[in-house]
Amino acid sequence: MTADTPPEHNRADLHKDPQQVSGMFDQVADGYDRTNTVMTFGNDALWRRATTRAVAPRPGERVLDLGAGTASSSASLAASGADVVAADFSPGMLAEGRRRHGHLPNLSFVEADATDLPFGDDEFDAVTMSYALRNVHDPKMALAELLRVTKPGGRVVINEFSTPPNPVLRGLYRFYNAQVLPRTARLAGTNGEAYDYLNESIAAWPDQRTLAGWMYEAGWTQVAHRNLTFGIVALHRGVKPAS
């Protein structure tokens, strides 16, 4: 490849090979947050605040933010005074997170596979994932791993794109994801193919009730969800049994 040849884009698919997905996120890391703000019309900040409130981190607690990406969500959690671990399988995203938020004394960074977490049993008071469970090749295994590393009585919050209950809005949302989102990403100078994958992964992702069922299967209890922005995003919560 010459200096004048643009780099090839890493295009993940719904097989969700970890190396392909990680490589794709490595390539979009520097513009990821900016593009997300444009794509969501600024709702990403509102969803992040809602997730932080749902996790309700407190000083002295240890919190795992899995699939942390550039650690915007981790920094929001760390503002509470809790000790937060930002974990992700994309070294490029973690590097961007360290560049932006590495100065925070109660925020650390760990490269991690969601299906085989490098943590001991019962380590965290709370665990959370934002827009990341959908990218794991075995999300049920990831939910079980999150349960394993959570203390008895600890809590989980999953923030993920979901299914708007209103059929008209659901159709408009699917049209936007399929036709508008990738084109806008390309205009913003981002890897549009990554946003083709984003649309495919959202369209293939199960609805709120199905994800709740997966959480129960993994061993979480008191599972409930709340729709944000008409169900474009949903917050799922659960508790690890105390015994």
Automatic annotation (TrEMBL):
It comes from Microbacterium mangrovi. S-adenosyl-L-methionine binds at residues 70, 88, 113-114, 130. One of its GO terms (molecular function) is demethylmenaquinone methyltransferase activity. Keywords: Menaquinone biosynthesis, Methyltransferase, S-adenosyl-L-methionine, Transferase, Ubiquinone. Pfam families: Ubie_methyltran. The keyword S-adenosyl-L-methionine applies. This is Demethylmenaquinone methyltransferase. Residues 1-18 have a biased composition (Basic and acidic residues). It catalyses: a 2-demethylmenaquinol + S-adenosyl-L-methionine = a menaquinol + S-adenosyl-L-homocysteine + H(+). The keyword S-adenosyl-L-methionine applies. One of its GO terms (biological process) is methylation. The gene is menG. Methyltransferase required for the conversion of demethylmenaquinol (DMKH2) to menaquinol (MKH2). It comes from the Bacteria. InterPro entries: SAM-dependent_MTases_sf (IPR029063), UbiE/COQ5_MeTrFase (IPR004033). Residues 1-21 are annotated as: Disordered. Belongs to the class I-like SAM-binding methyltransferase superfamily. MenG/UbiE family. Pathway: Quinol/quinone metabolism; menaquinone biosynthesis; menaquinol from 1,4-dihydroxy-2-naphthoate: step 2/2. Its EC number is 2.1.1.163.
